[in-house]
Amino acid sequence: MSDPSAWDALRASDDQATILHDPAFIDIIARTYRCAARPAVIESHRGATGVPAYRVARSVFGRKVTSQPFSFYPTLLGARDELAALQQLIGLAKSEGRRCYAEYKTFTPMAADWIDAVGPLQQVSALVDSELLLAPDDAAQSARYSKGFRQNLRTTRRRATVEGVSLVPASSEGDVRDFYRVLCRNNRDKHHTLTHPLSLYLDFFRTLRPLGKAEFLVAKRSSDVLAGIVVLRTGCRWDYVWGASSEQGRTLGLNTLLVDHMIREALRAKVRVIGFGASSPRDADLLYFKSRWGCQHRPVYYTYWNHAAGTVDLVEGFALARRIFPLVPVTVLAGVAPWVVPLLA
Predict the structure, then answer these.
(1) What is the CATH architecture of 4-127+299-344?
(2) What pTM was estimated for this model as a whole?
C-alpha cells in the first residue's frame, strides 16, 4: 500500500466504503491468491480517488494488474475518477513490463474519453452483480415478497423447527471446517468447480469475525452442519458471499432460511444494502433465487488494456474439467485448491 494513512483517511470519510476496502480484507486476499496489493490514493482534477489494485504475477490468464481478483467488485473511493483510476492501473502494468496487462472491473460501460486518453481498450461483460436494497423494517421487507414466497418461508421455518434445526453463528474453527466440507461437496456436485482455499475462510473467521466484519451463519442439527452462509459486514452494507447446503439441507430449504435470517439481522442493524454477489446471466435458477428477495441486477464490465478481452468464463468454462470434477474426491479438490486457485486469479 503506497500510503496506508491516506488510504485509511479516505476510506473513513467515504460512507460507501465496504469491507473490500478494508486493509485486513486486502491482506487476506493478497495472501490467499499470492498477489501483491497495490491500492493507492491518487489526485486528479476531480479530487482524491482511492484505487484498489493487485499485481498478479502468475496466472493462466497472464500477468496483470487488476482492480480485484475473482468476483469481488470494490468501487473506487472518494472522487471516483474512473479515467484516473484506469490510468493508475495501466501505469502499474507498464512498470511490470510489456507483457503485463491491466484489468479494471466496473459497473460503467466504456467511455470514448477513456480511449482518447489511454489508447485502445476492450471491454466485456460476462457476469451480473446483484444487490438488495432493504426496506425500513421487517414488516415492510416481508410485504415486498410475493404471497407464495411468504408462505414458503413460513413453511420452511416450521419444518426446520420440527426437524430440530437451529441457526447459529459458527463458534469454532471446527464449525468453519464443517461448513467448508459442505461447500466443497456442493461446488463439486452442483457447480463442478473448485472451492477457494480453506485458509481464506479460516482467515476471515480468525481476523474479520472478532472485529464484527464477518459472520459464518450455520444451520445445525445436533452437532452436524447441514448448511451455511458467509456474510461480510461494513457499516450500512453487508455482502452475502458464499452459501452451501448438504443434500439434507437442500431438502429442508436451509439456504433460504439462512438468507432470511441474515436479512432479519441486517434490518435490526439498520443495514441499507446487502450484496448478493455475481452470477452468470445464463444461471437462471440462481438469478431467480436472488430475484425472489427483491435483488436488482446490473452488468459487471471487465475493461482491458494490452489484452484481448476474451470470454473465458470461470462460471461455465473449462467444460472437460467440469465433467471430471464429480469423480474426484472432495479431499483431493480441497487439497489442490491452495495451489490451483491462485493460478485462476
Answers:
(1) 3-Layer(aba) Sandwich (3.40)
(2) 0.93
